[in-house]
From TrEMBL:
Classification via SMART domains: PP2C_SIG (SM00331)
One Pfam assignment: SpoIIE
InterPro entries: PPM-type-like_dom_sf, PPM-type_phosphatase-like_dom, Ptase_RsbX
Protein name stated in the entry: SpoIIE family protein phosphatase
Residue intervals of the PPM-type phosphatase domain: 2-186
Entry-linked Gene3D superfamilies: PPM-type phosphatase domain (3.60.40.10)
Domain of life of the organism encoding this protein: Bacteria
Amino acid sequence: MRLSTTHRTRPREGEQVNGDAVLVRSEQGYTLLAVVDALGHGPVAADVAGKALRSLAQAPLPSSVEALVNVLHGALKGGRGAAAMLALFDGRFLHCGGVGNVDLRTLGTRVPVFPTPGILGQPCRKVHPLEATLAPGDRLIFFTDGLSSRLDPLTTQGLSPEAACVLLMERYGRSTDDATVLVADVEGE
């Protein structure tokens, strides 16, 4: 199985740059999905998000979710910090975990991930990743708190990933915060 992904992201109304960021990276049969939400808004938050993505882009794959969270934690130490949700897909299993207020909803296979409270780059509890077996037709929706927690994945049923992102941003996006949504559909062989 493989993933078909797309995302939408935009800064808070009145800002020119975004403190949210997305990385999708495939290497050696593994796909890393990362959604980062730096604390605050504007240029400083955008710098933090960029630093987070650069560190994940250089991290070795395959790796564990815990190791990738530690890479982020180390890269952001001493700064403003960020929340993030990370998922590693190996063609069958999704390994997933996060810190802070980035969420994951699904259509199809239930992935009951509970992000660890805290801020990457500052002292926080250990991440407790989970593993789920995915199936063709499953949809994963990652989103930052720039979208309402009332986000209902059923509203995207039957839509392409691109159309789903557009709908979710229009329906659930808040103008008072940076907002990001990443949609990943599981496709068969």
